[in-house]
Amino acid sequence: MTVPHISRPELLVAFGALVAALGLQSSIWIMNGSTAYSPHILIMLTELTFIALMSLTIFRPSLLTTAPYRIVSFILLGLISVENVSSIATILHLLVTNSGLVGYRLLGTAIAIFLTNIIVFALWYWEIDSPGFSGKRWSRYDKDFLFPQQIHSHIFQAWRPQFIDYLYISVTNAINFASADTVPMTRQAKLLMSAQALISVTTLALIIARSVSIIGQ
């Protein structure tokens, strides 16, 4: 079985993104303490599992080609996605019920969820279009996203997208609700980008509303 076309530096960048996501969830724990909600705890546990799994692949890239690793990777990534959406629902519930949480804590939590959402969808984009966690071999003829470099392939002959390119898609889609220069080519890519945009709109609305509320106090 061939080893997927993915370098250790690219794995390290994705690993760093997961560590950053764990740091964001840890900040929520620090801010909210005993009032931290269960979805956040589940996200932290799932991310820790994911980080442990990635640590193995950094030193043993051959694990990327195994079927169990691929299945577990998809399950963990799906769990983080569902738990992050659940976190937004929990924040909405806390706002509606006037739970008594301090305004800046809810604001900080919403910002952490927004940034985590960017990382999670960057991992999804990387997974479906590039080797990602499942380790499939990348092909220029099997792409979910069309990058400018692929349009001008005569100039960028050896170019292929890496994790940082998918992180850029995720950042621009979260803020602009559309990618700046990359086109989604498949239905799964369009569905993922639509889901991210909807989550981002909701989270940004929470951040803005809470900010206005704090300023008005």
Helix content: over 70%
Overall body shape: globular
How many strand elements? 2
**Helical element count?**
7
Computed structural class: mainly alpha
Largest sheet: 2 strands, antiparallel
What percentage of the residues does DSSP assign to strands (E)?
A: under 5%
Topology as a string of helices (H) and strands (E)? HHHHEHHEH
Low-confidence stretches: none
Strand order of the largest sheet: 1-2
Taking the alpha carbons of the first and last residues, their distance comes to 62 Å
Domain count, please report it: 1
What is the mean predicted local confidence, pLDDT?
A: 78
Key features of this structure:
single chain, mainly alpha, 7 helices, globular
Topology, please?
Layout: H1 8-32, H2 38-59, H3 67-97, H4 103-129, E1 145-146, H5 148-151, H6 163-176, E2 183-184, H7 187-216
